[in-house]
Amino acid sequence: MFEQPPFWMYFIGFLAVLGPLVTLHELGHYLVGRWFGVKAEAFSVGFGSEIAGWTDKQGTRWKLSWLPLGGYVQFKGDMNPASIPNADAPLEGHANDGSFQNASLWKRALIVAAGPVTNLIVAIAIFAAFFAIYGNPTIVGADDSRTVGEFAEGSVARDAGMQVGDTIIEVDGDTVADFEEIRDQVLLYPDKEMVFTVLRDGDEIEIPLTTARIEEPDGFGNVSVLGQIGVRPDGGRYEFEEVGVLGAIPLAAEQCWKITGMMVTGIKQILSGERSIKELGGPLKIAKYSGEQMSLGFLAFVNFAALISLNLAFINFLPIPALDGGHLAFYAAEAIRRKPVGPQATEWAYRTGIALVLLFMVVVTWNDITGLLPIGS
Cα–Cα distance between 136 and 172 in angstroms, integer? Predict the structure, then answer.
């Protein structure tokens, strides 16, 4: 077990993670907006009352606000920081007035997408740097890492009839290329009925089993619920394969794609009841994990920042009104209808979206309070 970090490290870690990532997210919106000639009235890191700020020559108010749970860019023509259109703003004949709502549809879409895309680029850049510096972890020294070399204690695979020397070639009908793919197919699915196809003495044999549900704590006592079948590959060891800078980028993109797939799977499992909603965390859990990773050193902290950046990109792309994805959904509807969605429908959609976001924040904050406080217990 690791020693719990001091309280101040949770606070500093939280600000050091969210502060730069939120600022970069909003800078993505701001820079693309300015590129297209859209005027920004305010750029805020944080919500609520202003702590400090200044106004630049273009009239943009740059400010630091007291609630460090996000940020916003308020463009000309926005009713509020959520970029809800101002119904009183003129919409015809003013395409060059610097208003966001009067910009062409494709420009508005790119401005909105620029925020989460910036977070995605940050995550890819961090992962690519790790691959370029340290290499790609690869199993070497094994003829075929899919071949079962031994079983863990209490292995459900062994109990179901799998044998040492079997080569796993499919999981639920999906072909697997190596041991990593087998693990990825199982990891997020505890207590799930699956069919493993193995090659044994030249014959293909289907072995149905139910994955084990494992609660695995990390060094700080945080528990992850994982699926396992209890097999290890026949020989081999992990080595870091050298990767060039250009070769690291597609590996990093693949890593982000894999993690995003895990997020989607996790949400589906929570909605279907396969996982508890208590696994969702909010700002207090982010603060706790930030402090813990900071206590482990710079590299662990930067890796955690990449995961949070990817989470920000994913959440903001969700088609929920008041989030970036909600705006993009409205623009898609506008492109199909060849006219904007009506003001009444827009207003109700945004009210519903804001209500959903607030409800989500209440749920995850309650999870944090009941599951994490007091921090360090």
Answer: 27
* Residue 66, both tokens: 């007291």
pLDDT along the chain (377 residues), means of 10: 87 93 95 94 91 93 88 80 58 66 92 96 97 90 87 95 96 92 93 96 95 90 91 86 94 96 91 86 90 94 96 93 90 90 82 87 85 55
Helix, strand and coil percent figures for the chain, each rounded to 5: 50, 25, 30
Is 26 catalytic? The answer is yes
At 82, list the tokens.
Answer: 């959520």
Catalytic residue among 26, 41, 170, 292: 26
* Chain centre distance of CA 108: 24
Q: How many CA atoms lie within 13 A of 306 on its CB side?
A: 21
Give how far the C-alpha of residue 262 lies from the chain's centroid of Cα atoms, to the nearest Å: 9
What is the C-alpha to C-alpha distance for residues 241 and 138, in angstroms, rounded to an integer? 6
Tokens 């970090």 found at: 5
CA nearest neighbour of 167 among 156, 152, 182: 182
Write the CB contacts of 194 (distance below 8 Å, at least 6 apart in sequence).
Answer: 171, 172, 185, 186, 208, 209, 210, 211
pTM of structure: 0.88
Peptide bond into 85 cis (omega under 30): no
